[in-house]
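#struct-help
A.M.: can someone run this one for me? Single chain, 511 residues.
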Amino acid sequence: MRLKQLSTLFALALLVFGCAKDQLDQALTPEALRQDPMPKAEMDAVVWNYLKEKNEPFRWESASSMMLWSATVTSDSIMSLGYKPAGETNVEQRMFEIDIQQPAWKAAKEKLINFVVEETNKAFPGLNATAADLVLNPNQKYLPTIDIKIFSLPIIEALREMPEVRYIEPMTYQLEEVGERSDSGCGVTAASSITSADYTTVAPSAKIPWNFNNANIPNAWNTTTGSGITVAMIDTGTSDNQDNVGSQFNSGYSSGRFIDRQGTHISGSWWWASNDGPHDQCGHGTQMAGLIAGPRSTDGNALGAAYNCNLLAFRATTDVVVNSSSEKNGVRDALIISGNRSDVKIISMSIGDVFYSSTVADGIYYAYGAGKLIFAAAGTSLSWTSWWGVIFPANMAETVAVTGIKDSPNMTKCNTCHSGPQVDFVCVMQRASDNNRTSLSLAPSGNQPSRVGGSSAATATTAGIAALVWSTNPSQTRTQVLDRLKNASSFFPSRNSNFGWGTINATNAVN
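D.P.: on it. Structure tokens below:
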């Protein structure tokens, strides 16, 4: 298909009853022509009401077909289409075991793609679209999900009735307020000054963040430092300008390990899309990498909880909110890679959204089926929106949800952290006396640490603690490691309704 035809179709899908009315009259069938998409404000209202009533991430399966169509044609028109052979059950629980190259699975996939292609050409006469024009991930080898362009409401309505369809969702949609909510996202810089009370200097010349003592991490290093365990960090990548996640990853008391930097985020759209590579353009991923595995080096920078573990660092997102098709695909694909690597034991995800994404969930199911221990951030919001419950994917049963608390006698969540019944563990990362005095980690460049807080910091730190526990016996299972974390927690054997098992004593956990 010619690029001119594709760009014309994309413009029509975005404009719908705009200035291209004359072209639409010629390009669309009467059924499609008479449909106005729902206004953004109306769709946002539906989502807000759902969040307030259910206190859980919004699920597109609850939306009308009109809302699905409206959400996709007013964004990038990419939909995630989960499939299965008709009559197949328990797909999510068997995700890692399924071979989508088997005839029944291939037939279901081909049936749905052929249907979309045929109906698209009926709705847009003369377009002559092919599967190559509409399907964005034709070479998906592991998960039964299709990324596909859909422009017609009748196609969505018909797909939702087919027994081969597990789900159909817009890949890109965001509430207006969500883009402003993160307090631990991009724009990271080194702290201008750090009071001596917020770190301890340890040989050869590294800074221990003050909050590591609240989890008794330094004493745990007398037993283990995380050697032999690989943690996969799915985030915004790691900075090319920070040598502690580069040439100095092995330095000082950190040695004999590796960092593997990969990029699964695809930028651009349609035919000119390309892989962004592993470089962190946000700063958040570099901070999370530092909390997990920053080296115990000689340069005076902050070290990580498991300063001798291996790190598989993904650039899968542009920021902490997973709300675009490229970010959801990036996270899903990073989960697949992590699931397929036998050396990876732990996955750390200090990212999420208030929308449930089935294609990302498929990746979670896949990695979980491979035996990975998956930590996810419970959520970090502006104070006036922190009534939200635990966000996706931390709300899933297959993930371990972590949130941040203050160093107060009474357990108090950080000023922007989420809590709720899905939270499994908490980690101190904020001073009760000063909300700006949070944990310390690597900045995008240089040897001066940066400040970092929220459930993001709590999650990465807890993933590091898990690496310490697993390294005491690499043959342990996920369940055994998780049980040791629970047994070493402040509320065990009870469970708090908002803070799960509570804070972990790392020294008790490793011993």
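A.M.: thanks! The chain has two domains: 3-177, 211-510.
D.P.: also worth noting: The longest strand covers residues 423-430.
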